[in-house]
Q: What sequence folds into this?
């Protein structure tokens, strides 16, 4: 997963819109939009704004390395609220209409 996708995944997992996240980490909406679409890579300073914010610290390891360590509170966004991956159910073979 690209860094741009990870930033967006964190925001969505926390139930935030772009404006809310930007207000929390003191970042402009246009800059966040460029990060999330992959137009620009975040600077080290702006990555720190995310990883050092108390609400997002739990994603620091995953954001930087793609790894998790649940035993020390380092998780991926899909684990944030439910504690497990989302289950994908198979499609029904029944035709509709």
A:
């Amino acid at each position: 997963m690209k860094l741009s996708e990870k930033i967006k995944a964190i925001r969505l997992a926390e139930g935030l819109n772009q404006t809310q996240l930007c207000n929390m980490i003191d970042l402009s909406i246009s800059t966040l939009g460029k990060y999330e679409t992959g137009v620009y890579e975040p600077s080290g300073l702006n990555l720190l704004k995310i990883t050092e914010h108390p609400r997002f610290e739990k994603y620091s390891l995953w954001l930087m390395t793609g790894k998790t360590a649940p035993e020390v509170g380092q998780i991926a966004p899909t684990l944030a609220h439910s504690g497990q991956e989302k289950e994908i159910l198979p499609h029904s073979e029944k035709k509709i209409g």
